[in-house]
Amino acid sequence: MRRLSSLILATILLAAALVPSVALAQSTKSTKARIAVLEFQNKADNQWWYHGGAAAAQDVFVTELVKSGKFRVIDREQLAALMREKNLSLSGDVDTATAIKAGKLLGVQYFLAGAVTEYGSTKKGGSGFGIGVSKKTFVAAMNARIIDTETGEILWADEGRADSSSHNVRVMGVGGGEDDERMFDKVMKPVIQQLVASIKAADL
What we know:
This protein is of the alpha/beta class. It has a domain at about 30-120 and about 140-160 and about 180-200: ABC-type transport auxiliary lipoprotein component (Rossmann fold, 3-Layer(aba) Sandwich), CATH 3.40.50.10610. It is elongated. About 40% of the residues lie in helices and about 30% in strands. α2 packs across α5. The longest helix has 30 residues, at about 1-30.
């Protein structure tokens, strides 16, 4: 009987010890602010950006924000569905009044918005016939800001930039280098990671 009583007491004590941990985990989850990443504006003179680049950047931002553990992040498709349901249209240049209204309708505390200010390449060398070596430098730059949907205040703003170079060797006009479309991961993704690191360090 004593052994049974001791077992019951031990079970009760273990359960009591676990309750605060569970409550803390739930409390931490509930205190994380909900954030939605809007599609970025194109302010870069590059045609590629109109063919999926903005959506790709938005997806990478969502992924990196989730990895940061700082917010509860709305998925891009979920955000699009919510905006269709509420008959909303939002972009990277959202104004204060629209941000406040949309935030209430969508149930988010923050919007992350911004623009790609540079995305492209410069090429040097490689002209003429025979053997030629050219250097192509890809550059990406982006600015972003977080808007409080209760006040319309910009709580955080920053910009990031990255570049990467490749060399082309051509013999009698034949040859090539790295595909431009593959450069997204080399130049745009690091820019987004820079900005998310800045957000994570901010007091939000």
